[in-house]
């Protein structure tokens, strides 16, 4: 998709500062729990990498890739696991790391799937929260930023697989045809 970066929403310094703050309290909460950090692919890979390096506690890091499928015009809320965890999470403390919660459908289903595996606990940490678009009954335990209903890119997030490498978060403006 062709378009422009309309505005920088959060600079790399703003992101870094928020991550340091969140990492401090997460490290305190999980320091004796050897948590399983579940990075949701692909969007959360940069956030997760920066967050866990700031947390600096014993943990297992694993990756999961889920995507919505079904009716392609209306989000059906069905979720397909494209890449599952390698780790058995039974009895473990799980922390899901998300890039952004929009409708919440993907995460709602993902949480349901992971809870069936009987973890000791399961919490969600998201970099961005777009609460105005929520349709599923789900909220993060930790959110770093709340944002308006704009399409954002960078710092792991894409539009058509581009812009993930930007060190900041920008608002994407599609170019009219
Ligand atoms: P949801 O199921 O509607 O909450 O959206 C799930 C996923 O869609 C997020 O984890 C992101 O990967 C992607 N997504 C939602 N909004 C945006 C956005 O503004 N920019 C980039 N990706 C987004
Ligand atoms: Mg995501």
Explain this structure to me?
The chain is α/β, with parallel strands linked by helices. It has a single domain, classed as 3-Layer(aba) Sandwich (Rossmann fold), CATH 3.40.50. The protein is built from three helices and nine strands. It has helices at 12-30, 45-55, 105-115; strands at 3-10, 36-41, 60-69, 78-83, 93-101, 121-129, 142-146, 152-153, 169-174. The chain has a six-stranded mixed sheet with strand order 4-3-2-5-6-7. It has a three-stranded antiparallel sheet with strand order 1-9-8. Strand 2, helix 2 and strand 3 form a beta-alpha-beta unit. The chain is globular and about 50 Å long. The mean pLDDT is 93. Magnesium ion binds next to strand 5.
SSE topology:
Elements lengths: L2 E8 L1 H19 L5 E6 L3 H11 L4 E10 L8 E6 L9 E9 L3 H11 L5 E9 L12 E5 L5 E2 L15 E6 L3
Parallel strand pairs: 2-3, 2-5, 5-6, 6-7
Antiparallel strand pairs: 1-9, 3-4, 8-9
Magnesium ion binds next to strand 5.
Brief summary:
With 177 residues, the chain is of the alpha/beta class. It has helices spanning 12-30, 45-55, 105-115; strands at residues 3-10, 36-41, 60-69, 78-83, 93-101, 121-129, 142-146, 152-153, 169-174.
CATH third-level topology: Rossmann fold
Number of helices: 3
The coarse overall form would be globular
Tell me the distance between the termini.
Answer: 11 Å
- Secondary structure: helix percent: 10-25%
The poorly predicted ranges are none
Count of individual domains:
1
Largest sheet: 6 strands, mixed
Query: Total number of β-strand segments?
Result: 9
Percent of sequence in beta strands: 25-35%
Distinct compounds present: inosinic acid, magnesium ion
- What does the oligomeric state look like here? single chain
CATH hierarchy class name: Alpha Beta
By secondary-structure content and strand pairing, the structural class works out as alpha/beta
At CATH level 2, the architecture is 3-Layer(aba) Sandwich
**H and E string:** EHEHEEEHEEEE
Neighbour order of strands in the largest sheet: 4-3-2-5-6-7
Q: What's the alpha carbon Rg, rounded to whole Å?
A: 16 Å
Mean pLDDT: 93
